C-alpha cells in the first residue's frame, strides 16, 4: 500500500485500475447529454427526394421564358401536390403542378415559381416571372448527403445531433456507458433527515452531496446507504454493493481515530489498497482500493475534504468512463484578489470564486471558513485555487493556478 502520495500519482493509479467498459445502444430520445461511442455517417440523403421550398407551382423553366406581369405565360394545372404526396405525374410543356412547401417536385419539372408571382384558378395558372432551371428547387441531399459524417466519436449529444439522427431514421445510438456508482456514508453520529438531533449527532449531508454530485457528472447512482461505525456492517454493505457497482464512494472513517475503520475493512475484505492519504489539504485522509474490479473511493467524512477529493479524483475517473470531459476541472491562471494569511507546507486547495476578466481572470476566496469541515464555503465556489507545497501566505495581486468547475456552477 502506498502512503501519502501526490495527487497526480493518485489519479494515474486510479486510472490504471478502471475496468473495461463496453459502449451501449440507447434510444436516441434518451441520448441527450451522453457521448457518442463511434462515428456516425449518414445512411441516406436528406431530403430523400427533390422538394419544393415554397408554396407555388412546379413547371419546366423553359416554359416561363419571357414571362412578366405584362405578358404572363399561361400553363395548364395537371396535378395538386401536398407535403406527403408522391407527386408522380409527369409535367410536360405548357403544364404545371400546384405544389406546397416540402412536397416532392414531380418528374419533368425543374423549378418552382412562388405563388405570389402567379394568378390561378382551378385549371390554369398565369406565370408572371421567367425562371431558371433549378430555381426554388431543393434537391435530394440538400441538407445531408448519404455518407456525410454526422457525429464524430466522443461527441456530446445534444438536441441538434439527436434531431439529425432522427432525420436519418436512426432509432438508437451507441453511447459511452454511465458507470454505476454506490454511495456509502458511515458514522455513528449520522441521523436521517426528519429526525430530531440529540447532542453529538448531525444530519448526513455527505449522502446528499455525493449522490447529487455524482448525478451532475453523469454517473448512475444505483444506491445510497448509511451505516454506523461497525466494521462488520461496513464490510457486509461493501460486499453487497460490489456486484452492482462499478465504483463505490464512501465517506468517513479514513483517518487515524479509533472508529476510522475503512482501511481495516479494505484489508479484511482482501481488497487491493491502492493508497492511503494524499499530499493535499484538505483531503489528506483518503483511502482508495480495488475489490473485485470495483474501485472504492474512501473519502474523508469532513464535508469539504470529501467534496474536494471527489472533484479531483472521482470526477476525473467518472468522466473517463462516460466521456463527459467537459465536466472535469479545467486548469487556468488567475489574479488573486483576496488575502490568505496562512503558509502552506503541504499542497493546498482553497475554495474560490473565479470571474473572467479582460486580462485572464480574477479569483477570490469563497465565503465561509477554509476548513475541511465547513460546508458553507462550498456554496459559492466555482473553482479550487491550487496552492503549491511550501508556499508563503497568498496576497492580493498574486498570480495563482485555478481548477475551474464546469460552467453549471457559475451564476
Ligand atoms: N489525530 C489526528 N486526527 C485527525 C487527523 C490526523 O491526521 N490525526 N486528520 C484530520 C483530518 S485532516 C480529517 S479530514 C479528518 C478525517 O476524518 P475521517 O475521514 O476519518 O472522517 P470522520 O472522522 O468519520 O469524520 C470527520 C468529520 O466529518 C463529519 N462527518 C462524517 N460523515 C459525515 C456525513 N456523512 N455528513 C456530514 N458530516 C460528516 C464527522 O462528524 C466529523 O466531524 O480527521 C482529522 N482527524
Ligand atoms: O486534510 Mo483534512 O482532509 O484537513 O480536511
UniProtKB/TrEMBL annotation:
Top-level EC class: transferase
InterPro entries (UniProt xref): MoaB/Mog-like_dom_sf (IPR036425), MoaB/Mog_dom (IPR001453), MoeA-like (IPR038987), MoeA_C_domain_IV (IPR005111), MoeA_C_domain_IV_sf (IPR036688), MoeA_linker/N (IPR005110), MoeA_linker/N_sf (IPR036135)
Domain of life of the source: Bacteria
MF terms (GO), sorted A to Z: metal ion binding; molybdopterin molybdotransferase activity
Pfam families for the chain: MoCF_biosynth (PF00994), MoeA_C (PF03454), MoeA_N (PF03453)
Domain MoaB/Mog intervals: 182-320
Pathway: Cofactor biosynthesis; molybdopterin biosynthesis
Catalysed reaction, written as an equation: adenylyl-molybdopterin + molybdate = Mo-molybdopterin + AMP + H(+)
Keywords: Magnesium, Metal-binding, Molybdenum, Molybdenum cofactor biosynthesis, Transferase
Family statement drawn from the similarity comment of this UniProt entry: Belongs to the MoeA family.
Protein name: Molybdopterin molybdenumtransferase
Organism of this sequence: Halarsenatibacter silvermanii
Amino acid at each position: 500500500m502506498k502512503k501519502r502520495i501526490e495527487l497526480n500519482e493518485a489519479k494515474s493509479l486510479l486510472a490504471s485500475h478502471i475496468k473495461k467498459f463496453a459502449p451501449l445502444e440507447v434510444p436516441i430520445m434518451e441520448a441527450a447529454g451522453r457521448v457518442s461511442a463511434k462515428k456516425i455517417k449518414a445512411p441516406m440523403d436528406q431530403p430523400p427526394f427533390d422538394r419544393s421550398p415554397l408554396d407555388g407551382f412546379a413547371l419546366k423553366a423553359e416554359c416561363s421564358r419571357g414571362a412578366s406581369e405584362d405578358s404572363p405565360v399561361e400553363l395548364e394545372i395537371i396535378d395538386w401536390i401536398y407535403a406527403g404526396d408522391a407527386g408522380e405525374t409527369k409535367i410536360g410543356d405548357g403544364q404545371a403542378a400546384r405544389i406546397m412547401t416540402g412536397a416532392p417536385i414531380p418528374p419533368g419539372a425543374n423549378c418552382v415559381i412562388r405563388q405570389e408571382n402567379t394568378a390561378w384558378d382551378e385549371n390554369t395558372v398565369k406565370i408572371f416571372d421567367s425562371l431558371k432551371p433549378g430555381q426554388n428547387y431543393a434537391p435530394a441531399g440538400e441538407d445531408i448527403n448519404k455518407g456525410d459524417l454526422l457525429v464524430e466519436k466522443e461527441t456530446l449529444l445534444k438536441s441538434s445531433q439527436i434531431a439529425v439522427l432522427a432525420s436519418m431514421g436512426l432509432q438508437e445510438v451507441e453511447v459511452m456507458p454511465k458507470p454505476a456508482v454506490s454511495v456509502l456514508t458511515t458514522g455513528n453520529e449520522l441521523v436521517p433527515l426528519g429526525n430530531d438531533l440529540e447532542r453529538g449527532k448531525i444530519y448526513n449531508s455527505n449522502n446528499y452531496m455525493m449522490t447529487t454530485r455524482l448525478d451532475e457528472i453523469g454517473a448512475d447512482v444505483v444506491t445510497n446507504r448509511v451505516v454506523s461505525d461497525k466494521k462488520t456492517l461496513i464490510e457486509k454493505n461493501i460486499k453487497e454493493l460490489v456486484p452492482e457497482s462499478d465504483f463505490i464512494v464512501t465517506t468517513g472513517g479514513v483517518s487515524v481515530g479509533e472508529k476510522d475503520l475503512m482501511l481495516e475493512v479494505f484489508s479484511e475484505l482482501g481488497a487491493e489498497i491502492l493508497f492511503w492519504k494524499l499530499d493535499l489539504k484538505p483531503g489528506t485522509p483518503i483511502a482508495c482500493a480495488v475489490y473485485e474490479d470495483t474501485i472504492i473511493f474512501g473519502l474523508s467524512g469532513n464535508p469539504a475534504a470529501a467534496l474536494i477529493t471527489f472533484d479531483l479524483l472521482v470526477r476525473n475517473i467518472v468522466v473517463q468512463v462516460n466521456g463527459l470531459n467537459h465536466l472535469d476541472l479545467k486548469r487556468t491562471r488567475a489574479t488573486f484578489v483576496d488575502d490568505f494569511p496562512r503558509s502552506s507546507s503541504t499542497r493546498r486547495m482553497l475554495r474560490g470564486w473565479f470571474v473572467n476578466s479582460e486580462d485572464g481572470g480574477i479569483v477570490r476566496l469563497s465565503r465561509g471558513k477554509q476548513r475541511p469541515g465547513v460546508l458553507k464555503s462550498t456554496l459559492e465556489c466555482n473553482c479550487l485555487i491550487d496552492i503549491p507545497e511550501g508556499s508563503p501566505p497568498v496576497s492580493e495581486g498574486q498570480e495563482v493556478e485555478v481548477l475551474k468547475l464546469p460552467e453549471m456552477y457559475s451564476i
